[in-house]
């Protein structure tokens, strides 16, 4: 009888669905590293990439983190330029790499528009708790977009329902950084 009960309990525990990206983002005791980003229209409306592409216009990119402070790099890989400032603080004898993001929301400088074809702007966002995990160049950022999901359990969830939660949640199921790409190409 005891073996049967153990098997039933084990089966129930193993069949539980994995938490979604959004639920991990808001879990107060969770240590999963992640971001929530959205595009904001000129009128202040929060949009996902899909709804923004349909609406057209100029948009700002907002990035919110879920856990303690860490390092952020945002790259416009279409032109090879970093859009986050480099922090000038000294840590362990050297300058910190990346932007030290202690605020809840970071607004990427500039506005972005959707365009057709290969000329579309491509942003890569890398968020990490350790400065050793941030991207150090546009090329490095693109490599992380390709490689990181192969060995890290990164999950994405798009939320178009509630205006204050609209956007994309990108989480790592482990205690490590995340990477994501925004392509401003009309669909």
Task: Tell me what you see in this structure.
The protein is an alpha+beta fold and 187 residues long. The protein has helices at residues 2-14, 21-26, 49-55, 138-151; strands spanning 34-41, 46-47, 59-65, 70-76, 81-82, 90-91, 94-95, 99-101, 105-107, 122-128, 154-159, 167-172, 178-183.
User: Would you report the number of β strands?
Assistant: 13
Amount of helix: 10-25%
Distance between the termini: 58 Å
Radius of gyration computed on alpha carbons: 19 Å
Biggest sheet descriptor? 6 strands, antiparallel
Count of DSSP helices? Answer: 4
Overall shape: it is: globular
Count of folded domains:
1
Strand coverage percent:
25-35%
Protein structure class: alpha+beta
The low-pLDDT segments are 4-13
Task: Give average pLDDT, whole number.
Answer: 83
* Element order: H for helix, E for strand: HHEEHEEEEEEEEHEEE
Secondary structure layout plus pairing:
Blueprint: H1 2-14, H2 21-26, E1 34-41, E2 46-47, H3 49-55, E3 59-65, E4 70-76, E5 81-82, E6 90-91, E7 94-95, E8 99-101, E9 105-107, E10 122-128, H4 138-151, E11 154-159, E12 167-172, E13 178-183
Antiparallel strand pairs: 1-2, 1-3, 1-12, 3-9, 4-5, 4-8, 4-10, 6-7, 10-13, 11-12
């Amino acid at each position: 009888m005891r073996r049967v009960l153990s098997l039933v309990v084990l089966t129930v525990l193993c069949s539980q669905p994995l938490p979604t990206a959004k639920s991990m983002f808001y879990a107060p005791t969770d240590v999963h590293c992640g971001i929530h980003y959205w595009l904001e229209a000129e009128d202040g409306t929060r949009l996902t990439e899909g709804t923004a592409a349909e609406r057209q216009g100029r948009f700002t990119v907002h990035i919110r983190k879920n856990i303690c402070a860490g390092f952020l790099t945002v790259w416009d890989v279409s032109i090879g330029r970093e859009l986050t400032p480099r922090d000038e603080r000294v840590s362990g004898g050297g300058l910190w790499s990346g932007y030290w993001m202690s605020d809840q929301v970071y607004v990427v400088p500039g506005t972005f528009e959707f365009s057709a074809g290969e000329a579309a702007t491509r942003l890569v966002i890398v968020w990490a708790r350790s400065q050793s995990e941030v991207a150090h160049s546009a090329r490095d950022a693109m490599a992380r977009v390709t490689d990181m999901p192969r060995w890290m359990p990164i999950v994405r969830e798009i939320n178009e329902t509630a205006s204050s939660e609209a956007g994309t949640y990108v989480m790592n199921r482990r205690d490590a950084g995340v990477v994501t790409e925004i392509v401003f190409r009309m669909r």
